[in-house]
Amino acid sequence: MKTEIPLQNDLCLSVKESVIFEKDKMVERSFSYDFRDRGTGKMIWRIDNHSRWQSVASRCHVHTNPDDEEELNEYFHNSQQTDFPYVMRCLRKHYEQEPQDWEVNPDDTTK
């Protein structure tokens, strides 16, 4: 699945998500949640595994530097919890000007 969700304040979330399930359990995925300013094209953050097929037990990361989109923070221990509901919580935090998990505990990679 690939979709772009327009949001208020001229922001948008691009979602790329493909998942393999075995017995109702997510086992592999390829994903990217890219949050940007549509007007400038600048990235705000991107949570992804570089859209590569990987086990959900594999690490994933967040990109937060709009001036160097390749820079990443290996904040997430695995990708099991970095799903669409988690990204919706991140969007809420952005709009409510609350710090993101990776900002509050930048050295905690147990998430």
How would you describe what is shown here?
By secondary structure, the protein is mostly beta strands. It has one domain. Helix content is 14%, strand content 42%. The protein has two helices and seven strands; from the N terminus they run E-E-E-E-E-E-E-H-H. Strands 1, 2, 3, 4, 5, 6 and 7 form a seven-stranded antiparallel sheet that branches. It is globular and about 40 Å long. The mean pLDDT is 93.
Task: Summarize the helix and strand pattern as letters.
Answer: EEEEEEEHH
* Mean pLDDT, all residues: 93
In total, the number of strands is 7
The biggest beta sheet reads: 7 strands, antiparallel
Report low-confidence residues grouped into runs of 5 or more: none
Give the number of helices: 2
The N- and C-terminal alpha carbons lie at a distance of: 25 Å
Class from secondary-structure proportions: mainly beta
Shape: globular
Total tally of structural domains: 1
Computed CA radius of gyration, to the nearest angstrom: 14 Å
Helix content: 10-25%
Task: Provide the descriptors you would attach to this structure in a database record.
111 residues; mainly beta; 7-stranded antiparallel sheet; 2 helices; 7 strands; 14% helix; globular
